[in-house]
Write a structure and sequence with these properties.
This protein is of the alpha/beta class. It is 33% helix and 27% strand. The protein has eleven helices and 13 strands.
């Protein structure tokens, strides 16, 4: 793996847990957490706009960031696309980024006349059209409408395939699953760092649902009954209360008139919320 960004015992505050992480070419991580958790500050530290209070950050190659974007509201969208450093004078590339961000139909409009979602898309034009090794996006994806989000993510995927790495802040659980790794912050402290699978394994237990046509038979087996289902690196682990191991086994095997047993893992949202419970 060719290193693009490396964090060594990084901390946003003077004490508490630190973070050591390496990001390679084409990889993408997201930074999540509640309001005022420190997401924008983390982006500033990783991009070099601010110094960390613990540890260090190494960057290799060039960077582009939505933090550096300054857009005049009297500017027209098309002019913004044409001045991108990597696409200056290249009409096809300018059209490509406008189509990806769903701004093609409003390319002649003033930025002041755009919707909030379209304004967020404008913030992405310069970073996504730069010849760079690493892109930082601070929350703009959260503000895009579903159509613009889909096409923008497709464009980001193409950039990743070409070796560009990304660090993105988000509060959307549906976005988090698309990234290689996740950093979760609260009050400027790192609460979690790892893959989405790691997060789900640390999250709440799986939900066990039993479907039956003849309730009394199953109720006799189940009540009172508790089983905890937790995912581990080795697979799914079921733990029943003392004396109930046999009942748990019979349930999963479809004992009696049980039609089926459904095992539902926790969602990304449930796993994130469990970090703060």
């Amino acid at each position: 793996m060719i290193e693009v960004l490396a964090l060594e015992h990084l901390g946003l505050v003077a004490d508490g847990p630190t973070l050591t992480l390496t990001i390679g070419k084409g990889q993408a991580i997201c930074v999540a957490g509640p309001a005022a958790a420190g997401k924008t500050r983390m982006i500033r530290v990783l991009s070099g706009a601010e110094r960390p209070l613990q540890g260090s950050v190494r960057r290799h190659g060039t960077c582009a960031s939505t933090l550096d974007v300054a857009i005049s509201r009297r500017q027209r969208v098309q002019a913004l696309a044409k001045k991108g450093g990597a696409i200056a004078g290249n009409a096809s590339k300018a059209a490509e980024i406008l189509l990806a961000t769903q701004l093609w139909d409003v390319r002649h409009s003033l930025i002041a006349d755009l919707t909030p979602g379209q304004s967020a898309a404008c913030d992405l034009i310069e970073p996504l059209s730069s010849a760079t090794d690493l892109v930082f996006i601070d929350g703009q994806l959260d503000r895009l409408d579903p159509w613009a989000l889909k096409s923008t993510l497709q464009h980001i995927s193409q950039m990743r395939a070409a070796g560009v790495a990304f660090v993105i802040t988000t509060n959307r659980p549906d976005l988090i699953a698309a990234f290689d790794a996740l950093i979760v912050l609260k009050n400027n402290h790192v609460r979690f760092a790892g893959t989405v699978d790691d997060l789900l394994r640390m999250g709440p237990p799986h939900t066990l649902s039993v479907a039956t046509e003849n309730r009394p038979g199953v109720q006799a087996l189940v009540a009172p009954f508790e089983v905890t289902v937790q995912e581990s690196a080795e697979g799914v682990r079921l733990s029943a209360a003392e004396g109930q191991a046999l009942a748990a086994r019979l349930l999963l095997e479809g004992y009696g008139d049980v039609k089926f047993v459904v095992l539902r893992p926790p969602t990304v949202e449930e796993a994130l919320l469990s970090l703060f419970s």
